[in-house]
Specification:
heterodimer; A: 283 residues; mainly alpha; globular; B: 286 residues; Fumarate Reductase Iron-sulfur Protein, Chain B, domain 2; five-stranded mixed sheet; two-stranded antiparallel sheet; 10 helices; 31% helix
Chain lengths: 283, 286
């Protein structure tokens, strides 16, 4: 029975005929031609993220392949530590471990950077960042993505994201070595202990941020206690889980801060090694 | 933006209690009241479009108040689902200016007075009429999650749990099932074909809640929720882009506290040979 309150039909047609519409244009959904109706600057965050990551990729690639200007006593660039080939600069008391011998002729940075790179590439925060910023999957919330098919992390290669915890273990080892590099920064150019320069402060800030980022990792949170069902039976791990959880809330901030600090620490060494600046000594 | 239909442009364009173009301003009207320009999607599964309305807004009102005023004054047949008007029933989910939100929890004060406010139904689900969608998909997915399995050695009233053991999953129980997270998740919003395989953030969170439950005996009964999360509920489709967390009106950290821990638990089972070996060598109670 007609009640007089039936909705009037639209004058707005559905999207034009062609391939079978999917996503928000699926035939059963509200007929709205626009893929999204967001009016705010939703593109700003993914664009800024992509630019920031791209800038780091360009800078780190240049420095990693350069194979020069990465050591100035007592500082070694974090990109080149530990140095696993024989073609490294001699760093007294430093991370010279020629595991790969003489046959490695490329930059030694390439041998070690695979671990922090893998750690960040599989990191839950960076995944969000580059899925949004580079792959537009999605570019922003409720903004339709351009891809016709989506299988997420169910197939190769993205299923490999599940090995994040192994990169976490490797990143812990690298952080230990970078900590030792920071300790070595308490020497002067003649390798005498008990000295400190501005570079020491740069390295200290960097290592604090590296540790904070590494320990705030979601895999770390899971390993220290998240996998438990009964926290009450494991009070120490419960407390650790709580601490890591507090750091984990700032995982994104720490990811960016440590990315910036590691680049700055490297750049500081570069400036010293090229003689652009001299390290102001504090004592 | 293209306005697709204007079949309400009769009384709606004059406004309620506001100055009609060419007349002197209404000096009796309080400064806190103004006329807002709304675009509301109207139609059904056969088609529809955005309809323009000019409608009075008063201080302290939310978008649902304005929708109700439209029903009362200009569009008596406008369909909208609502109930508590307090952000607790999860009924009035819609999209406002393209963002999934609760109509009753979106204050008009967040918009500029001259801003056009666009209200549409949820765009991940089949539309029924106007702002009402068929959210049956979510109930189908809810049924696919095996319920809590009571421990065999405890009867009703004998359950005892420590606060630290239940604290984690209590956060997930704040869920009001508004399905905004399901609506915004691009896995199903942008790919209808994934609906069969993917449970969505709300129900993956339910799996996580049960897997973290200190007394759930599913595993002892032969059901491994960690493996099922990946194999049966499509956890692998989630690429943790956090839109579910962004839109949650209860501020549940769905991604960080439910989905990522669940991914780590699934990795324990399926992708970590060391954990697998450790569990084989020494059957641990966690």
């Amino acid at each position: 029975m007609a009640t007089g309150t039936e909705p009037q039909q639209s004058t707005g047609p559905r999207p034009p005929a062609g391939p079978r519409p999917t996503g928000v244009h699926t035939s059963t959904r509200a007929a709205i031609a626009e893929p999204h109706l967001r009016k705010d600057r939703w593109w700003l965050a993914p664009a800024a993220t992509a630019l920031g990551l791209l800038a780091f990729v360009v800078y780190s690639s240049w420095r990693a392949f350069a194979n020069t200007d990465y050591y100035h006593a007592p500082y070694v660039s974090p990109f080149y530590s530990p140095c696993l080939a024989d073609n490294c600069a001699t760093m007294k008391g430093g991370p010279n471990w020629g595991l790969f011998g003489e046959w490695w002729g490329l930059s030694p940075a390439l041998l070690i950077l695979i671990f922090p790179l893998g750690f960040r590439l599989t990191c839950y925060y960076y995944r969000k960042a580059y899925y949004r910023g580079f792959w537009a999957s999605p570019p922003a919330c409720a903004v339709a993505e351009p891809h016709k098919k989506y299988t997420g992390e169910t197939r190769f290669p993205l299923i490999l994201q599940n090995i994040h915890r192994y990169f976490f273990y490797a990143a812990m080892l690298v952080a230990v070595i970078l900590t030792w590099d920071t300790v070595l920064g308490f020497r002067n150019e003649e390798y005498e202990w008990g000295h400190m320069g501005v570079g020491t402060l740069v390295f200290l800030a960097n290592i604090v941020l590296i540790w904070a980022y590494t320990l705030s990792c979601h895999s770390c949170r899971h390993i220290v206690g998240g996998r438990l069902r009964h926290f009450s039976k494991h009070p120490v791990r419960y407390r650790l889980w709580g601490w890591v959880g507090k750091l984990n809330e700032r995982h994104m901030l720490l990811a960016w801060a440590s990315l910036l600090s590691v680049a700055l620490a490297d750049f500081y060494v570069y400036l010293l090694a090229t003689g652009t600046i001299t390290d102001p000594r504090l004592f | 933006m293209t306005t697709q239909a204007h079949h309400g442009a009769g009384p709606g364009t004059e406004g309620i209690g506001g100055a009609v173009s060419g007349e002197a301003p209404d000096t009796t009207r309080p400064e806190t009241s103004y006329d807002a320009h709304f675009e509301v999607w109207r139609g059904d599964v056969d088609g529809g479009g955005l309809e323009d309305f000019t409608v009075e807004v008063n201080e302290g009102e939310v978008v649902l108040d304005i929708i109700h005023r439209l029903q009362a004054t200009q569009a008596p047949d406008l369909a909208v689902r609502w109930n508590c008007k307090a952000g607790k029933c999860g009924s009035c989910s819609a999209e406002i200016n393209g963002r999934p939100r609760l109509l009753c929890m979106t204050r008009m004060s967040v918009f500029d007075r001259d801003e056009i406010v666009t209200v549409t139904p949820l765009r991940a689900f089949p539309v029924v009429r106007d702002l009402v969608t068929d959210v049956g998909f979510n109930y189908e997915k809810a049924r696919q999650v095996p319920a809590f399995v009571p421990p065999p050695d405890l009867g009703p009233g004998e359950y005892r749990m420590q606060q630290e053991d239940v604290g984690r999953s209590q956060e997930f129980r704040k869920c009001i099932e508004c399905f905004l997270c399901q609506d915004t998740c691009h896995v199903v919003r942008d790919h209808e074909e994934n609906k069969a395989a993917f449970a969505g953030p709300r129900f993956l969170m339910r799996v996580a809640e049960l897997d973290m439950h200190p007394l759930d005996a599913a595993e002892e009964a032969g059901h491994d929720r960690k493996t099922a999360a990946q194999d049966d509920h499509g956890l692998g489709y989630c690429n943790i882009t956090k839109c579910c967390t962004e839109v949650c009106p209860e501020n549940i950290k769905i991604t960080d506290n439910a989905l990522i821990p669940l991914k780590e638990r699934a990795a324990d089972r399926k992708y970590d040979p060391l954990v697998w070996l450790g569990n084989k060598i020494r059957r641990r109670t966690t």
